[in-house]
Amino acid sequence: MVLSTSSITAVSGARQRRLFIISAPSGAGKTTLCRAVLGRFPDMQYSISHTTRSPRKGEKDGVDYYFTSIQAFESGIKQHKWAEWARVYDNYYGTSAEFIDARIKAGNDVLLDIDVQGASQIIRRYPACVTIFIMPPSLESLRERLVTRETDSSEVIEKRLKIAVDEISRRNLYRHVIVNDKLPDAVAELVSIIEMYRLN
């Protein structure tokens, strides 16, 4: 079942349920910030993305991502299964529309961790969603973070930085922009934004 766009803020109890979208260039600290949000709001539901890429060291299916085949993902595209989907770094990523609609209907806020391309699709489908973009303090600091985490080759890092420039140029697509320079400050700002919406 697919809910109408107005249903994303359907009232359950005393307040509206919200769909929160967080986007950031790779390496800007988005995953850490999302974990902090989920720790602060344990009733919030995290939408786990589906992807065709291979798991990185320590990643678990159904926890970090739902890892799926290219064939299964493309079948989902044809069946309009994805609320948003994109091909990034030669792999597919997508968000289940059924998951979002079911959790909102059940009375939960939902948190999505998606890229800029995916966010633009979600905004069209769910125009009442709350969008937040996480900025690195500089491209040089972003490069340092990508090098330090030791998960990508130098070629991939340069590709990620090039894409980061494009993503940052589209930050005006979002309602809120947070610069993640000092993590505690960024967490506090993000939590404050979410609390503001959850009080309404």
Provide a descriptive summary of the structure in words.
- There is one protein chain.
- The strands form 3 sheets. Strands 4-9-3-10-11 form a 5-stranded parallel sheet, sandwiched between helices. It has a 4-stranded mixed sheet with strand order 6-5-8-7. The protein has a two-stranded antiparallel sheet with strand order 1-2.
- The chain has helices at residues 30-40, 70-78, 97-106, 116-125, 139-148, 154-169, 183-198, and strands at 11-12, 15-16, 19-23, 45-47, 50-51, 66-67, 82-88, 91-96, 110-113, 130-135, 176-179.
- Mean pLDDT is 88; it is low at 1-13.
- The protein is an alpha/beta fold and 200 residues long.
- The chain has a domain at 5-47 and 108-198: P-loop containing nucleotide triphosphate hydrolases (Rossmann fold).
- A hairpin with a 2-residue loop joins strand 1 and strand 2 (15-16).
- It is built from 7 helices and 11 strands.
- Helix 1 (30-40) packs across helix 7 (183-198) and helix 5 (139-148) runs antiparallel to helix 6 (154-169).
- 41% of the residues lie in helices and 22% in strands.
- The protein is globular, with a radius of gyration of 17 Å.
